[in-house]
């Protein structure tokens, strides 16, 4: 063992340099934590009017990346103040650069995913929070990170990209159905035809439900019985379907009935509207809804026919609202002596 070499390594100068470097690293790291705790709340207050809580993914991702930047800065200064041999210094800084690219890539993936999630919540209908968009963002950022690492290692990216371009044609032909589904899914989202959470009805018996997700290959729809319909994006984009949440979630429930000719029509209208408002108040206590519409339709063979239109804020609410309204109006008409009559509809 070479004691002279060890004494050189652990000399006063070595400990002084190590202490100075460690002090700078701790100061920069501490300063970064303070800045992160000051900048992020102010930015969230300015951009989002303090509507983002500290538990929100965007808040956490923003604070994390600021702290990471100061950590990398402190680590770089720590290494820079060390006196290393040229060969070892080159290896250390190359390793530091690759590690920094990896850490920043993962942090940027989290940040952009959180930004997209927040943006999709703020701009309902413009873009969806479907996983296909998040996956495209992740793949793009990871691809950029890999390219930067290869360039740092001195590996030329141009020949690789050229080889991928030549082989890409053959791969594209083999993956034509997959690529068709991918671009069809993007087309659906960018065309504002569909988004996560919409209630849709496709052509065919029982093909309706809530859109759970739009992935790079399929659109997943959850039915009332909790079963799942999986539709390829290429089929979804070329199919005729009804989106009950466009242009808005609110829809109208039409209920038709008839009363005997000797009935007091003013009283019938008053009761029908009163019951409708009671039912809506039960379902939507504080939410604003449209007014109830009542109109007499025709003189039937044995009844005066009328129609009541009630608003519904969700597609699935209509069934419970209709159920409750029919029960209440039937009971009230019996108490008031109003005779309901069966409507006879003639063909045109």
UniProtKB/TrEMBL annotation:
Domain Mechanosensitive ion channel transmembrane helices 2/3: 135-176
Entry's transmembrane regions: 20-40, 61-79, 91-113, 125-150, 156-175
Localisation per UniProt entry: Cell membrane
Recorded topology in the membrane: Multi-pass membrane protein
Coiled coil residues, start to end: none
Domain of life: Bacteria
Residue ranges of domain Mechanosensitive ion channel MscS in the record: 178-244
Record protein name field: Mechanosensitive ion channel
Source organism: Leptospira ainlahdjerensis
């Amino acid at each position: 063992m070479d004691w002279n070499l060890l004494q050189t390594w652990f000399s006063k100068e070595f400990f002084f340099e190590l202490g100075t470097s460690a002090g700078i690293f701790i100061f920069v790291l501490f300063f970064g934590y303070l800045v992160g705790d000051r900048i992020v709340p102010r930015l969230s207050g300015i951009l989002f009017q303090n509507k983002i809580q500290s538990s929100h993914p965007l808040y956490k991702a923003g604070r994390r990346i600021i702290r990471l930047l100061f950590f990398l800065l402190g680590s770089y200064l720590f290494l820079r103040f060390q006196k290393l041999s040229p060969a070892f210094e080159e290896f250390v800084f190359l390793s530091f650069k690759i590690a920094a690219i990896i850490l920043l890539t993962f942090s940027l993936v989290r940040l952009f995913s959180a930004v997209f999630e927040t943006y999709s919540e703020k701009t309902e209908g413009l873009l969806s929070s479907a996983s296909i968009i998040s996956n495209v963002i992740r793949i793009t950022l990871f691809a950029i990170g890999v390219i930067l690492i290869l360039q740092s290692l001195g590996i030329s990216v141009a020949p690789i990209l050229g080889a991928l371009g030549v082989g890409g044609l053959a791969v594209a032909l083999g993956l034509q159905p997959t690529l068709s589904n991918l671009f069809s899914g993007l087309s659906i989202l960018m065309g504002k035809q569909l988004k996560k959470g919409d209630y849709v009805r496709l052509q065919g018996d029982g093909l309706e439900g809530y859109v759970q997700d739009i992935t790079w290959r399929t659109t997943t729809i959850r039915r009332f019985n909790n079963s799942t319909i999986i539709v390829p994006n290429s089929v979804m984009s070329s199919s005729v379907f009804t989106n009950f949440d466009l242009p808005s979630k609110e829809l109208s429930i039409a209920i038709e009935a008839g009363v005997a000719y000797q009935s007091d029509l003013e009283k019938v209208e008053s009761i029908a509207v009163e019951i409708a408002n009671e039912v809506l108040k039960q379902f939507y206590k504080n939410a604003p809804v449209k007014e109830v519409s009542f109109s007499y339709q025709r003189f039937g063979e044995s009844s005066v026919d009328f129609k009541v239109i009630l608003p519904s804020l969700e597609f699935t609410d209509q069934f419970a609202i209709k159920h409750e309204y029919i029960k209440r109006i039937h009971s009230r008409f019996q108490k008031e002596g109003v005779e309901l009559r069966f409507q006879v509809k003639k063909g045109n």
